[in-house]
Structure formats: structure tokens, C-alpha cells
Amino acid sequence: MSQEQIAARIRQSIMTTPSGEKEFLASDVSYQDVYAIANSLLEVLGERESAVFLCTWEKDLVAASVLAALAGGFSLILPYAYSDSVLQQVQDTLSVRTAITDQPAELPAFLKPVQPERDPDSSFNHPLKVGPDQDFFYFFTGGSTDTPKMWPKTPRNLFSEAFYHSRKLNISHNDLILATVPPHHIYGFLFTVLVPFVSSASVVSKVCTFPEEIRNAMSQYSPTLFVSVPVHYKMFQSSPITNNSLRLALSSAGTLDRQDAGCFQAQTGTQVLEIYGSTETGGIASRERTGGDSAFVPFEVLDWKIRHSQLLVRSPFIPPGIAKDGEGFFPTGDQVQPSGDNGFILLGRADGVVKVGGKRIDLNELQDKLKEIQGVEDAVVISIPQENGRENEICALLQSRADIQDLREASADVVEPYALPRRIQVVDKIPTSSSGKYDRKRVESILSGGE
């Protein structure tokens, strides 16, 4: 779509109030309330700020902040953590002085907190001052693994993907979404803020992360869509869940085990659609994980190709300023192999191969082998460079209640001697971040004896 077309569609989607007092947050906040919050933010911020921190997990405040940013012409930055040091680091780079928040007491003194008020009679009819291809929303990746990297997104990137999923998944005003991932993660932001807004769906306000919380929310709200991550689907193996209201379940932010997907379907009667993508690329492809299909089918709105086993994509979901090749393709960090006429099988990270004693070891493949050991519920494998920098030590953290010596012996039966982890630790639960990904820093700390 042209700039004018995408701008008109965005304007129509955010300025068309659903009929009556349609709920944005189930049993709590209406769409009219969101518009009122946005108006309040505009009155306080107006055009006086060029960039503002968004320090909240409240979905109505996130949605209102997006509207206010589009109409006020300022950018929103979602920090990867709310600690003083992280906020100071980002502030030093971008000169951010203000933060939209629902918890002002938790902000450092160098930031001015903004808390909106609500005028229930207000309407939102402001012109948009952010162009369709202008950077205005910033996410971070890598906060738990390496130096965090900031990724800008444009209205075209974000709303094009929201429009696409709403249409493809037939999401409408009749749907209610329950999620286990917060809105500061791009997957959570997309499916609990933007997708509901462009489809007039409702969303449960609470971010549920424990089986009992999810069970209670299922019973109280009867959601039709469940948005979660692999680590949460795994919980249902040992803590069953039942629900008859769901018509669709989604998983992203990591590879979903087929066994976990099958368990969820057996318990709820709902198949799990796995979405593959990243913060920088947006969604790329999907697969029905419980249907026995191991190949991902790319979304029809993007182009893709494979170069030396590496996946490259050209997509309206990718920011214009990101580095691409001469044809506009962005190289992902994943290795794939073609499957059928229009699909690919994900082989793992392109950087997931290390050398030990001159032998190449695929950490993803090793991790999968360890997961197959009886008594192992989950596993994370990492490599730690040795002092000389030329060799790597393979370490594994296993989620299990089995005896560690038995697990060591079982590992030796399924792994080549040169690939056998030098260090193996056993925990009741592998630490994860709020978005459901493995917390690499804590994993490394446990494996090094720091916890």
C-alpha cells in the first residue's frame, strides 16, 4: 500500500469507536476510556516532547500512548528493564526526560512521570502527525543475552502486521484474548494491544503466567484466543488445563515442542498455531504444531529466499532503516532448509554452531537430544569461551527431578563423547524472562556456581 493508503487505514482503525461501550479490557476498560486516556496524554505532552519512555504493562495505557504518539508526533521507547541504570543508559543516548507510567514512585528522579486522567465524555479526532514510514516505536532485544539492541518500528510496520493477523485469523469484535506475555514484548504488544484495536476485539487485562492464574482466567472470562509462549505450554504437561471456549491458541518467542502442543490440544481441544519471527522482522511464517507439520509456511505478504542455508526476508513488517541487501532482503540469524513448494524447516540459529576440540557442535541439536532423555522436562545448552578464546566449554542446564548422576550417564548414551557437556546442572525450573525466553544471564550464573 502507498503512504496515503496506509495512513488512511491507520486513521480509520484508531478513530472508529466500536459501537456502544465496547470493552477493550474485559469487564474493566472501554474503547472510549482508551480514547480519553489518549486525550489526557496529548494535553500533557502535546508537541513538547520528541521521545517518551513507556514504563507500564497496563494494556489500556499502552494503547492510549500509541494513539497519543501518533497524534502528538513523538516517539515511544519501551525499555527492556525499568531499573535506574537501564533508564539512565537509554536516556543518555536519546535525551529522554519523560515517562508515561502507572507507577510513578518506581521511576528514578531524573525522569518526569506522566499519569493520564480520564474524561469519559471525550472523543479522539486528532490528525496524525507521524508519517507511515517514520520511526516512532522502539523495542529492545538482547537484554538477557548480550548488549541490548534497539529496533525502531514505523506505523506501517506495526499496523500492517496487525491488519494482516486480524484478517488471517478472523479476529473480530466477538473475540476475547487471554495472554501470558506482556505488552512490552513485540509479540505481546501485537496481539494484546494492536490486533484487538484494529479488530475491535477485547483482551483480558491481567498477564497470566502460572497455571492456576490461567485456569482462573479461563473460567472467569471464557476467552476465544490464547496467546502464549513455549515455556508456558510446557507447564500444562504437569498441570493440566481444560477449556471449551477457545477457538485458537498461538505460540511464539521460541520453538514449541510438538509434545507440549499435543498435550494442550488433548486438554482443551484447541490446536496451537506457532508463529515464527523476531522483533526486527515481525512475523515471518506459521505452522500448525499439532498437525504433524514440521515446516513453516511464510506469510503471503512477504518475500523470502535462502542463501547458504540462511533465511532472508523482504517484508512490510521490517523497518525501512534496517540494513538489507541490494534487493531489499534482510538476513535473519536462522538457518533453514526448503520444504515442499513454499515452506522451510527451521534448523536453528546461524550462530548456534561452535567448535570443541576441532569438532563442530550444533548447540540446538544437542539441546534437542538432551530433551529426549527420560526425566528431562526442558534443557538449555550454552557454550562458554575458554580463557584462550579459541575453545568452548559446553554446559547444560536441565529441568528435571531425576538424579544428576543418572542424567549424566543417560547423556553419554545419546551424545557423542566430544559433544558431551562438561558441566551439567539440574534445577526444578529453568529461569525465563517475562516474555517466556530463557534468561541467559541467570542460566550462566547457575552453571558457573553463582546461584
What does this structure look like?
The protein is of the alpha/beta class and 451 residues long. It folds into two domains: 3-344, 3-Layer(aba) Sandwich (Rossmann fold); 353-447, GMP Synthetase, Chain A, domain 3 (2-Layer Sandwich), CATH 3.30.300.30. Helices cover 30% and strands 26% of the residues. The protein has twelve helices and 24 strands. It has a seven-stranded mixed beta sheet, with helices on both faces. The chain has a six-stranded mixed beta sheet with strand order 6-5-3-4-7-8. The chain has a four-stranded antiparallel beta sheet with strand order 16-17-18-19, with no helix packed on it. Helix 1 packs across helix 5 (155-168) and helix 5 packs across helix 6. The radius of gyration is 23 Å and the shape is globular. The mean pLDDT is 83.
